[in-house]
Amino acid sequence: MLMVDAFATYFRVLVLVVGILVILPSYRFLARQDAETSEYHSLLIFSNRRPVPDGGGHDLIIVFIGLEISSIASYVLAGYFRDDKRSNEAALKYFLLGSFATAFFLYGVALIYGATGSVTSPRCAPRFGTKRAVPGVFWAWRRRSCL
Fold it and tell me: Are 24 and 33 in contact (CB under 8 A)?
C-alpha cells in the first residue's frame, strides 16, 4: 500500500526536516505563552506524519488514513490554548472546514472506485489514460452541469 521510490523518500525526508525546523523555535514560543511543551510536541509530530503516507501512497485508503491522523492532531493544535477565545474559534472553524473537505475527498474516492473498481493507483491510472477516460458516472454529471 506504500511505495518506496526516490520521490517518496525525498518527500518523507523533506517533511521530517521541515518538522524539525518547526519544533526548534517552538520552545521559545511556548515559554512565552506559559504552555505545556510535551503535549504540543507530540501533536506536532502526529500532524507532521501526514504527508509521509501521501508521498508514497499507493492506495487512496492509506492517503485518507494519513489525512485523518494529521487532521485530528491539527484540530487540537489549532485550539491548543484553551483559555484563548481566538484559539477556540480557530479550532472550531478548522474542524468544520476539515469535515467538509473530508466528505468531498471521500466522495471523490467513491466516484473513482465506482468508475474503475479499485482505489489502488496503478489500477486506476490506465483506465483514465485511455480514450474512454471519462466513465459513465462522470458523463452523467457532465451532461447535467452543461444544461
Answer: no
pTM for the full predicted model: 0.69
Report which of 55, 37, 32 is spatially closest to residue 121, judged by C-alpha positions: 55
Asked if residues 61 and 108 have their Cβ atoms less than 8 Å apart, the reply is no
Indicate the DSSP class of residue 117: S
Question: pLDDT tens for residues 60-73?
Answer: 888 888 788 878 88
Type of residue numbered 107: Y
Structural contact between residues 42 and 79, judged by C-beta atoms closer than 8 angstroms: no
Are 8 and 66 contacting, i.e. CB atoms less than 8 angstroms apart?
no
The single-letter DSSP state of residue 1 is: -
